[in-house]
Amino acid sequence: MSDDPGNRNLGPLYRRHRSELLAYLTRRVNCRETANDLLQDAFIRLMNSEVAKIGNVRAFLYRIANNLSIDHARRNRVRGINDELQLQDLAGDADPQSSAIAGNTLEHLQRLIDGLPSPTREVFLLARVEQLSYKEIAVRLGLDARAVERHLNKAMAHCAAVLQANESR
């Protein structure tokens, strides 16, 4: 069977290329969960593409995967810059004692959030910081609403476990 996505039956293509694309994306983004999400996005883009113009499906999938991993890195870099600017603003607005308390709190929160896997962290930040709905997050990240809910539940469970561990000390 040739790699012909024209019939929109992506099952054989998915089975044939999944492992190697997942390994490629995992190396690119350093997170298997994020790589799985990007892999799904790649196949969705393949499904929505003009298939008559695709000569080599494998190469096309790698191009999509590469572009998705670059977009992912850009989003993380921009979010990191914005977080840094917000921390600098907060530190400059208060007296030294308040700044120290806020700095410690922010460092603790940052470590807590950084402990989340990438897609879960993204969902958490979009829900709690940007106040987006499950549907808006799903659209932005290319997930379904149930996946958003699972990621948010995972984030909340992680936060609760860390807070409980800190209280028991």
Automatic annotation (TrEMBL):
GO terms for molecular function: DNA binding; sigma factor activity. The keyword Transcription applies. Keywords: Sigma factor, Transcription, Transcription regulation. GO terms for biological process: DNA-templated transcription initiation. Residues 13-77 form the RNA polymerase sigma-70 region domain. The keyword Transcription regulation applies. Residues 109-159 form the RNA polymerase sigma factor 70 region 4 type domain. InterPro entries: RNA_pol_sigma-70-like, RNA_pol_sigma-70_dom, RNA_pol_sigma70_r2, RNA_pol_sigma70_r4_t2, RNA_pol_sigma_r2, RNA_pol_sigma_r3/r4-like, WH-like_DNA-bd_sf. It comes from the Bacteria. Belongs to the sigma-70 factor family. ECF subfamily. NCBIfam families: sigma70-ECF (TIGR02937). This is RNA polymerase subunit sigma-24. The lineage of its organism: Bacteria, Pseudomonadati, Pseudomonadota, Gammaproteobacteria, Pseudomonadales.
